[in-house]
Design goal:
201 residues; alpha+beta; six-stranded mixed sheet
Length: 201
């Protein structure tokens, strides 16, 4: 008994032989492109988390300081206080001389007044605040700039108006204040200083 192919099988064989085949280099090229895209994704992810990793290749530059009130209408300029709005320029803190040295903290005081510690930070551009309680007031060089919750995300960074050092105080009623000294310098390792504090009662 011989088997005769059904009409459908012959048609399938003809279609299989008639279909154009992809050249062998096309899948290899697709694989290379996918590997390059994955490498680029990893590189940009690392660069986003640690901007100094690629400093030898790409160096981000600090934008030149704009005068206070020079932003779009209704937007405060760099360093402007969110508590005392104004366009006269007196609502932004004045930078002190840059603090030098490598110490991460300074301790002062003693006696009946107690000991005060100030944590030192460096940044190229500005600062973010992660503070408990969130409604703690932040003062920069004794000028109230706003509540901590107003500067707690990457799109709400407080930009320093000019290079130099700034004394940052975090104050809330019924809590002990915390003091930080942030030096704005275009050669600093971090773009933004992160102030993290849990105020004690």
């Amino acid at each position: 008994m011989s088997e005769t192919p059904s009409p459908g099988e012959g048609l399938r064989e003809r279609r299989h032989h008639d279909e154009p085949q992809l050249p062998r280099w096309v899948p290899a090229l697709i694989g290379v492109v996918l590997v390059l895209l994955a490498a680029l994704a990893v590189y940009t992810g690392i660069r986003f988390r640690n901007p100094t990793l690629a400093d030898g290749i790409i160096r981000s530059r600090r934008p030149s300081p704009q005068p206070t009130g020079g932003g779009p209408p209704g937007e405060p300029g760099p360093g402007a206080s969110l508590v005392f709005p104004g366009e006269s320029g007196d609502n932004a803190p004045t930078a002190s001389d840059a603090v030098t040295g490598r110490a991460r903290a300074t301790i002062t005081g003693g006696g009946a007044m107690g000991v005060t510690a100030a944590v030192r930070l460096w940044a190229r551009r500005g600062m973010m605040a992660s503070v408990v309680p969130e409604d703690a007031m932040i003062y920069v060089n004794d000028l109230a700039i706003g509540e901590a919750k107003q500067f707690n995300t990457p799109d709400e960074v407080y930009d320093f108006p000019a290079p130099g050092s700034y004394t940052v105080r975090v104050v809330a009623p019924g809590y002990r204040e915390r003091v930080f000294v942030v030096t704005a310098d275009e050669n600093a390792r971090d773009e933004v200083a992160r102030i993290e504090a849990r105020l004690a009662r």
